[in-house]
Amino acid sequence: MCGNSPADLPPPRTIAWDALQPVVWYANRMQCPPGFVFGPRVIDEHQFILVADGLGSAWIQGERYDAVPGSLFYYGPETVHRFEADRERPFLLYGLHFSWTGEYAGTGAGISIREASFDPATDAKRDNRMVVGSPGRPEDDLTIGDVRELPAERFEPLFARIAECYRMEDRGFKASLLRGLLLELIASIKQGERREGRQPISPLVAGIAERLARRARERYDRRWLGEWSAYHPDYIARQFRAQLGVTPYDYFMARKLQLAKDLLAHTELPLLAIAAELEAGSIHNFTKWFKQLAGVPPGKFRGGSRFI
Fold first, then answer.
1. Are residue 173 and residue 246 in the same domain, yes or no?
2. Is residue 171 part of a domain?
3. Does residue 219 sit in the same domain as residue 279?
4. Model confidence over 74-125: pLDDT tens digits?
5. Are 208 and 229 contacting, i.e. CB atoms less than 8 angstroms apart?
6. Which end of the chain, N or C, is less packed with Cβ atoms under 10 Å?
């Protein structure tokens, strides 16, 4: 069997907006080490991979793509994929395993990852497109394929919320919360297509976001917003939220939480040292804060699974 061209592919799979009942099977955030590789592999479910930061490369059914901040990759069951992190600036990824419909069966259920290979010269490509739409309303169609570019500043918080919710202890409302967050994510991708007139991210707000990220080891100080601009902190806070969808404080705390997760996942520092590094107070305060935002205590997070 020889490789096929896009013209040879059958029509993409479709699902109506009002039929969406997505299920999150696994969600994680991973700062990849330099040169880190996973794949070639296949899975039994669907997956989104968001590049939040850093650089790398992705191959989906033999097609190579640059992986840059904001790249959203998608592939369905049995679709061969491979990712490789840059050696100088390795990427930070969010991975989300899901199905478009179904019922949640508990943390870790439904995950199947297997090694695979793909030869473009001999292997036929699967149609890796999914169309979410409304009958008779083509303007509502959302076509999801191998890759699209999204504003990382706006979509990383959505992926982070899903990953944090997934790490929560199983509760009666957890499945509904995960489904709601995934529905919000999918709808936001479509909404973003129709927001060309939305207020762009200004250099001022982008610069403040970058400075907040750099200062995430410190305690938040609202006065920074005025010191880093020629405006009142209230004005900057309104502009920040209008352009990025989150308040400066929430953005700052999300960056601090990411630092905590990185230290827990990639170092052997004791909790006391991590709490001191992040100026989070006592171990008790750090543990309480981390569990409130991440859904699990830091010790349980450290012992959790570390794959994407």
1. no
2. yes
3. yes
4. 999 999 999 999 999 998 899 999 999 988 766 555 678 999 999 989 998 9
5. yes
6. N
Model confidence pLDDT, tens digit, residues 152-199: 878 888 898 898 888 887 788 999 999 999 999 999 999 887 654 456
Is 84 in the same domain as 110? Answer: yes
Q: How many domains does the chain have?
A: 2
Q: Are residues 167 and 119 in the same domain?
A: yes
What is the pTM assigned to this prediction? 0.73
Distances (CA, A) of 34 to 124, 211, 258: 32, 24, 18
Find the angle CA(221)-CA(226)-CA(228) to the nearest 5 degrees.
Answer: 90
